[in-house]
Write a structure and sequence with these properties.
Strand content: 15-25%
Largest sheet: 10 strands, mixed
Number of strands: 10
Helix content: 40-55%
Distance between the termini: 13 Å
Number of helices: 11
Shape: elongated
CATH architecture: 3-Layer(aba) Sandwich
Length: 298
């Protein structure tokens, strides 16, 4: 996207799940808009240990079985895509290794990486881990995690929503959101939130007697400052500004109900750290009502 000069191709991870197929359909829709090839990618499972009495033929049979099953899953995904997109260039890619490591490696040269929704709850991600979260936290390109119903699998006229907090990662997400909205020809909703705790440096009795007008003006000015350069670069994008006295997760989850995509930045916190200090991106990955694009510096 903003680094399109050095990145090429939309990578969709295929694991046989319905979510992965919808993610591949979404990726095909994006590939068509961006005029990029779609790379349907399946990670081949590692071989079991045949060291104790196993024959070489056992390893060969296992390898053939894994490749045959992988090819079948990719073919099924391609067939689902071809129903809607006959003009997209599709490449089949098979790589070996652990799922997260292999996809992170591919993200070094990809324009976008598209994955099915996390197969774990937030709590399970903390204690058991999740390949989707691992990829999102380490990827070198934007990662879109499919959420929502099957009608989110193709781009449409619904707006793009971007969360803005004034940080460097937020600016990165804003750039991707504007570029995506421009390519799709859809409106952009810029969401900025604030609360009393952040404004007063903590909860106190003073908040009951505070005139919040100046604080609201300041937050509106901050959002305008964050958008200024991007609205000049993409004058064709219709922008709606939403400054809410709320938490970012709550506000973005609400906006996701009417959006086709929510775009946010991420610090790449582990699920455990996210459970302690909070992570808007990981909460959206588990609860949003539409696909979520997570951007971080790779």
């Amino acid at each position: 996207m903003t680094s399109a000069s050095v990145r090429h191709g939309i990578v969709a991870g295929i694991d046989g799940s319905p979510g992965a197929v919808n993610a591949a359909r979404w990726a095909a829709s994006a590939a068509r808009k961006f005029d990029e090839p779609l790379r349907l990618t399946h990670v081949l499972r590692g071989q079991p240990d045949f060291s104790e009495g196993g024959a070489v033929t056992d390893e060969e049979m296992f390898d053939r079985h894994v490749r045959t099953e992988g090819a079948k899953l990719v073919e099924e995904a391609e067939n689902a895509i071809r129903d809607d997109h006959t003009d997209v260039t599709i490449e089949r890619v098979f790589v070996s290794g652990t799922t997260a490591t292999a996809l992170v490696e591919l993200s070094k040269t990809a324009r976008i990486l598209s994955l099915g929704q996390a197969g774990t709850t937030e709590m399970q991600s903390v204690f058991l881990g999740s390949d989707t979260i691992r990829v999102v936290n380490r990827a070198h390109c934007p990662v879109t995690v499919f959420r929502g119903s099957s009608d989110h699998a193709t781009t449409d006229t619904r707006p793009i929503v971007v969360g803005i907090d004034g940080s460097k990662l937020s600016e990165l997400a804003t750039g991707h959101a504007f570029e995506f909205a421009a390519f799709l020809g859809v409106p952009l909703v810029a969401v900025h939130t604030w609360n009393e705790h952040a404004s007063l440096g903590g909860y106190s009795e003073a908040r009951r007697f505070t005139d919040w007008g100046p604080y609201e003006e300041h937050e509106n000015a901050l959002l305008s400052e964050c958008l200024a350069g991007w609205t000049e670069k993409y004058p064709e994008v219709e922008v709606t500004r939403s400054v809410q006295r709320s938490g970012p997760m709550k506000a973005l989850l609400e906006h996701s109900a009417e959006a086709q995509l929510v775009v946010v930045g991420s610090h790449g916190r582990s699920p455990f750290m996210a459970s302690i200090v909070g992570s808007t991106s990981q909460s959206l990955i588990h609860h949003a009502q539409c696909p979520v694009m997570v951007c971080r510096e790779g």
